[in-house]
Write a sequence for this structure.
C-alpha cells in the first residue's frame, strides 16, 4: 500500500537529480504521470504532456515568468498551477547588495588598479551605515534586500505600486510619489517591472535631482534607465556612479563607454545565474511539496486571469 | 549655575566640528580644560596637556591602538582612560563582507571585463546562501560581521583564543583547534591580531586543505598569509581566490602578480578609511559621553597593565 502521507510527484521531462532531491526533501515520492498527484516540470511548455490525468491536482512550473505557458493555453482551471516566482529573489538581492556596496566603497577602481593607490582611493570610500537606500519597485527582490541593508545600518525607503507599508522599510511611498525619492535617498536600487510607465524611469531629470555621491543599482531591466543620460551624469560626476546587471542595449556592445568609466560597474545579467537555477528551484520545490503534503497553501500560485 | 546633568567636556587640540557634534549628541557641553570633567582628544600624544586637572575624571583617546600613549607614560590611574577600540569594527566588517561577496560572486573578473562575457562568467557566480564562513580571530570585527553574514544565509564558524562561544556563531573553536577549520569551512576571513603565533597562519599546508572554491579574505595584517604560497595556490586554482585589504609586503609593489591574477582582489588597506575616522570616532564619543553623563560603564576602557 502506498504511504498516503507522501505525495506522489511526477518529475519531467526526464530525471533531474537536483529536483528529485528537492522533492524527496519536501517529503514526496517520485511517480509515473499516470499515478501522480502532482507534476514538477523542469523545462518549457514544448515538451509538456498534452493531457494531464485528472488525478494531478498541482503543477509546478520552473520559471518565474509564465507568459509562454499562458500563450500555449496549458494553464487550466482543473488544478493548481504554481510558478517559481520569488524563488530567485534571494540570489538577486544578494547581487544587488554587492553592487551597491561595491559602488559605495569605491571597489570598481580598486579592482581595476595595478598599483597601491591608497591616498587616492581612501577619501572615496563610503559606507552603507546611516545611508538611506530607495528601493524603487519593492517587490520580492526588494523585500529580500531589506534585512540585508538594515544589517549594514542602512534605512530603506520603499516605493511600491500601492504604497502599503513594506515590513522593515523605514517608509513606503506609492508609485505616484516616486518623484520624491530622487532628492531624498542617498542611493537607489531599481527593481521595478518593465512596463510602459517605468520605461526610462531614471532619466536626465531624475539623475539631476540625485546627490553627487548617489549610486544607482539596476537589477531589473535595462530599459528603466536612459543610458545616454546616465553616461552624461557619470562623465560629469553629477552622481557617484552606477552598477548595472542589466543594460540598454543588452548585451552592452563592446566599446560602450559604460565598460570603462571609472564610476560604472557592469555585470552581464548574472544576478540570477543559470547555474544556480536547479538548486534554487529545488529549494522552492521542496517547500511546495511539503506544503502540498500538509494541505497548506502553495507558494507562487498562478492566477491565469492576472497573468502571473 | 551649570546644568549638573550635562557633563563638561574639553575637546582638544583645537575645535573639530564632527567631534563637537558627537559630544553634543551625547548630551555634553564644551568646556575649557580648567573647567572640564572629561577630555576628548583628537590627535596623538605629542600635543597632549602635560598635566590634567584633578577634576578630569575621564579621557577619550582617538585611536584603537594606544601603544604611543602608554610609551609616553600618559595613561595614569587617577582617572578612566578610554580608547576607540571597537569604534571602527563596523566599517571594517562592512568591507570584509564586501570582499567576500565580491570574491564568491566572481565580481573581480566582471569589473575588469570590457565586453559582455555572460556565458563565461555565469557558471562562476557563487552565493553566501548556505555557505560556512570561518572567521579566524573572531574579535570585534568578526563579531560585527556575524549579523551581516547570517543575514545572507551563511553560517559562521568562529575561532577565538579561548573558544568561548561567540553569540551568533554556529560554532566556536579555540585557537588550538584552528587546524580543523581549513577543510571544514567554505570560505575564510582572517581577522586575528599579528603575533608570533599567527605569522603565516595561512601557508602552503593550510591552503592545500581548503576547498577549490574557497575564498580567503584578509582584513587583519598581511603577515598572517604566506604571500608566495598564496600566489601559487591562485595560479594553480587550488582555491577559489583571495581578497586582501592588507598584504605582505605592504604596500604591494607595482608589478606583483597579485595585481593581475584573475582570482585575486586587492584593496589598498582602506577597510577603515582615514576619511571615515572623524565621523566614526564622533559616534563612539557620543556613546561614551552619554554613558559618562548617566554614570554607566564606558566603552573601551584602557587597562594599562594589559596594554589595551
Amino acid at each position: 500500500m502506498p504511504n498516503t502521507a507522501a505525495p506522489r510527484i511526477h518529475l519531467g521531462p526526464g530525471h533531474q537529480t537536483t529536483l528529485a532531491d528537492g522533492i524527496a526533501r519536501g517529503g514526496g515520492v517520485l511517480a509515473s504521470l499516470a499515478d501522480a498527484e502532482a507534476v514538477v516540470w523542469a523545462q518549457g511548455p514544448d515538451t509538456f504532456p498534452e493531457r494531464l490525468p485528472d488525478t494531478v491536482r498541482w503543477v509546478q512550473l520552473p520559471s518565474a515568468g509564465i507568459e509562454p505557458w499562458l500563450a500555449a493555453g496549458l494553464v487550466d482551471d482543473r488544478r493548481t498551477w504554481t510558478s517559481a516566482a520569488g524563488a530567485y529573489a534571494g540570489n538577486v538581492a544578494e547581487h544587488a547588495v554587492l553592487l551597491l556596496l561595491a559602488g559605495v566603497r569605491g571597489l570598481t577602481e580598486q579592482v581595476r588598479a595595478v598599483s597601491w593607490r591608497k591616498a587616492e582611493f581612501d577619501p572615496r570610500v563610503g559606507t552603507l551605515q546611516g545611508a538611506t537606500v530607495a528601493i524603487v519597485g519593492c517587490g520580492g527582490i526588494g523585500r529580500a534586500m531589506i534585512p540585508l541593508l538594515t544589517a549594514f545600518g542602512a534605512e530603506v525607503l520603499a516605493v511600491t505600486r500601492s504604497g502599503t507599508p513594506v515590513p522593515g522599510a523605514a517608509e513606503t511611498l506609492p508609485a505616484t510619489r516616486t518623484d520624491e525619492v530622487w532628492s531624498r535617498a542617498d542611493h537607489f536600487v531599481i527593481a521595478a517591472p518593465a512596463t510602459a510607465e517605468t520605461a526610462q524611469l531614471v532619466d536626465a531629470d531624475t539623475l539631476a535631482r540625485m546627490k553627487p555621491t548617489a549610486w544607482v543599482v539596476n537589477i531589473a531591466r535595462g530599459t528603466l534607465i536612459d543610458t545616454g543620460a546616465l553616461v552624461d551624469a557619470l562623465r560629469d560626476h553629477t552622481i557617484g556612479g552606477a552598477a548595472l546587471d542589466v543594460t540598454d542595449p543588452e548585451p552592452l556592445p563592446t566599446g560602450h563607454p559604460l565598460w570603462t568609466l571609472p564610476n560604472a560597474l557592469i555585470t552581464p545579467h548574472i544576478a540570477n545565474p543559470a547555474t544556480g537555477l536547479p538548486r534554487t528551484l529545488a529549494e522552492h520545490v521542496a517547500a511546495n511539496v511539503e506544503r502540498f503534503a500538509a494541505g497548506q497553501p502553495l507558494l507562487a500560485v498562478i492566477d491565469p486571469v492576472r497573468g502571473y
